[in-house]
Amino acid sequence: MKMYGIKTCASVKKAKAFFDKNSIAYDFIDLDKEPVGKDKLEKWQEFTPATSMLNPRSKAYRDLDLKNKKLTDKKAIDLLSKENSLIKRPVIEHGLNGENKFTIGFKEEEYCSTFLS
Questions:
Q1: Spatial CB neighbours of 16, under 8 Å, sequence gap ≥ 6
Q2: C-beta neighbour count of 80 within 10 angstroms
Q3: In this predicted structure, what is the pLDDT of residue 85?
Q4: Contact 24, 114 (CB under 8 A)
Q5: What is the pLDDT of residues 48-81, one digit of tens each?
Q6: Rounded Cα distance, 97 and 117, in Å
Q7: What is the rounded CA–CA span in Å between residue 80 and residue 96?
Q8: Low-confidence residues of the chain: pLDDT under 70
Q9: Cα(74)–Cα(98) distance, rounded to whole angstroms?
Q10: Where are the beta strands (DSSP E) in the chain?
Q11: Where are the alpha helices (DSSP H) in the chain?
């Protein structure tokens, strides 16, 4: 299982704490040190629209005034690949039950049902 995020992100800290508390192993990929490109983002788009990967709470989102713009998934991929800080965090790639899965953001209830059942 891989967790993509930024160390200082509050949601990433919550996800790490959840996995650590429940002894769930993961590899952490720091987007500040290892940015993801279009290929990875397009793979993630198989699980969720690229526009839903945008983090409306990020400074970059506000600076680019994305709230008032209608973006296509293609444009969102372009923006996300150039500015990884726009990615909603954390992004979890996991292969539970032999299937490729994807979880974005931190919601404790969702984590419990996904990772503890």
A1: 3, 26, 28
A2: 27
A3: 93
A4: no
A5: 999 999 999 999 999 999 988 889 999 999 999 9
A6: 11
A7: 26
A8: 96-99
A9: 29
A10: 2-5, 27-30, 91-94, 101-104
A11: 10-21, 38-44, 59-63, 73-82, 108-115
> What span, in angstroms and rounded, lies between the C-alpha atoms of 113 and 21?
15
Q: What does the mean pLDDT of the chain come to? A: 93
Give CA–CA dist 44/111, Å, rounded: 18
**In the chain, where are the structural domains located?**
2-115
Which residues pair with residue 2 across a beta bridge? 27, 93
pTM of the model: 0.90
Compute the distance between CA of residue 54 and CA of residue 50 in angstroms, rounded to an integer. Answer: 7
Distance between CA atoms of 79 and 111, rounded to whole angstroms? Answer: 28
Q: How far apart are CA 85 and CA 6, in angstroms?
A: 8
Please provide the CATH number assigned to the domain covering 2-115: 3.40.30.10
Residue 109 has what pLDDT?
95
Beta strands 91-94 and 2-5 are: antiparallel
